[in-house]
Amino acid sequence: MAVVASFGVHGCGGAGASHRGGAQTETVTDGGLSMRWYRMMWCRWWLHGGGICLMMSEAWSEIQSVRWWVSIFNLVKANSMLGTSNHSTFLAKDSIRAKSFTRASMNVAVKVSRFNDITMAPPDPILGVSEAFRADTHEMKLNLGVGAYRTEDLQPYVLSVVKKAETLMLDRGENKEYLPIEGLDAFNKATAELLFGADNAVIQQQRVATVQGLSGTGSLRLAAVLIERYFPGSKVLISSPTWGNHKNIFNDARVPWSEYRYYDPKTVGLDFDGMIADIKAAPEGSFVLLHGCAHNPTGIDPTSEQWETIADVIQEKNHIPFFDVAYQGFASGSLDEDASSVRLFAARGMELLIAQSYSKNLGLYAERIGAINIVCSSSDAAQRVKSQLKRIARPMYSNPPIHGARIVANVVGNPDLFNEWKEEMELMAGRIKSVRKKLYDSLSAKDNSGKDWSFILKQIGMFSFTGLNKAQSDNMTNKWHVYMTKDGRISLAGLSSAKCEYLADAIIDSYHNIS
Ligand code: PLA
Questions:
Q1: Where in the numbering of this chain does the Aminotransferase class I/classII large domain appear (predicted)?
Q2: Residue located nearest, by CA, to atom 14 of ligand 1
């Protein structure tokens, strides 16, 4: 319920004559009835039955002035003539609540919001963690929720190649014209080549439809809409567990999904047999969502032999592979190695979808830069698919932002910057690997229970899936001020070597003392 203290109905009907500053009448059309009314700041009191309205003004001094009372009198007269007075359209509406107030009844203008049925949404399971972290004032607090890279001082990091590319762009005095719907050509070319390798047959034969997207999320969403539109009823198979937003993306695009087994808590590893069985059991022609590298949240990737078997089964069942590549270069430190799963499928001549993101590997989180690539069996099909992706993008956001696209195109297109980028990426990936090792060492040294923590070393990418349950994760946050997602995932990209021992204490306490 909103108390209508100030009726901000400007623009409804024509403005009436102004009596004096601050107290003016306006003609308002409401439900076909016209009435003259006073704009005021606090509230209106309607004296019951008398047809008189008493108004509070913005300023006490104004109420004391004779002219103000004259203007009130004029207003009331006008309202009576129009037959509105306190039987106005406001009173006729059930949105006015009457309250008894000594001898007079007070009608506080309270409006029932049209949005009343909208309930409060829960905080986002990942981005909501950062909000809670910001509100915490404890000096030892640690944000291991969102996967965002931090320096050893736990500060956000802007890559030096990004700064160099931005300087180049500024020197060139680039304009801010709209991009085409499909995005920046130079970016689309660079991103597809980075993914497949410039000499890949799919590029040479122009069989890839590439459209710039709003980072990984927006690119996934474009593909989801394409699936909903052109493969109605087809299911997307997603790993259990997966990045939480995958489900939201397919739900909102009205694409049915189901899960395939992926993580085995007993081995703290891949449930490969379960995964293969579930992909086999899915209806023919399903889309199989795969994490290209650095599976989120588990940090467990199939081996190259396992990837071959996954490709076999997908081919047998006529499924369509759909890769989410959000961490190219960030898992191993090598762009080519992290793209090997995608390239293996492309080399088999399969049609596939790949969403890319530059949030992590170029640290362009807020620039929202990524792409959707759809490999088709002919260049003709690729052109048609691209035209439909553009058609999906146009009513959603018209065309994508230019800044991040130019940064990527400049970094990838300039051999010096490209090499420098690879070095910086190795450094970032290396720092994450070193805190992973340090955390493992600290846990092993401090925990005398005999528990084997080596699974942490086997996981790759920015995350570690600790195996802590919700209650234990809550203890990490409530007692230790370590912010993490409730599925037990911690982002090692947000950890410094200096905090490894503290984190190990928190994990040991939560693991052993909370069930
Ligand atoms: N796909 C996967 C598997 C991801 O982990 C993320 C990001 C994305 C796509 C999308 O990122 P983008 O839209 O910025 O390109 N996952 C983060 C952030 C790093 C997030 O939840 O949005 C995470 O903490 O899981």
A1: 140-507
A2: 359
Question: Does the C-beta of 147 come closer than 6 Å to ligand 1?
Answer: yes
In tens digits, the chain (515 residues) has pLDDT values of 333 333 333 333 333 333 333 333 333 333 333 333 443 433 344 433 334 444 444 455 555 666 656 665 665 555 444 433 333 333 333 333 434 444 444 555 678 999 999 999 999 999 999 999 999 999 999 999 999 999 999 999 999 999 999 999 999 999 999 999 999 999 999 999 999 999 999 999 999 999 999 999 999 999 999 999 999 999 999 999 999 999 999 999 999 999 999 999 988 899 999 999 999 999 999 999 999 999 999 999 999 999 999 999 999 999 999 999 999 998 888 999 999 999 999 999 999 999 999 999 999 999 999 999 999 999 999 999 999 999 999 999 999 999 999 999 999 999 999 999 999 999 999 999 999 999 999 999 999 999 999 999 999 999 999 999 999 999 999 999 999 999 999 999 999 999 999 999 999 999 999 99
Would you call 37 a catalytic residue per the annotation? no
Catalytic residue among 45, 243, 421, 480: 243
Catalytic pick among 360, 422, 438, 499: 360
Among this protein's residues, is 45 annotated catalytic? no
403, burial (CB in 10 Å: exposed 0-12, middle 13-18, buried 19+): middle
What are the structural domains of the chain? 3-110 (no CATH), 127-156+421-513 (3.90.1150.10), 179-413 (3.40.640.10)
Determine whether 360 is an active site residue.
Answer: yes
Query: Is the beta carbon of 492 within 6 A of some atom in ligand 1?
Result: no
C-alpha dihedral sign at 253, 256, 262, 263: positive
Q: What is the DSSP letter of 486?
A: T
Å from CA of 324 to ligand 1 middle: 10
Is ligand 1 within 6 A of the CB of residue 219?
A: no
Pocket test for ligand 1, best of 127, 236, 245 (most atoms within 8 A of CB): 245
Angle, to 10 degrees, between the axis of helix 415-446 and the axis of helix 403-413? 100
Q: Is the sign of the CA dihedral 154, 411, 357, 328 positive or negative? A: negative
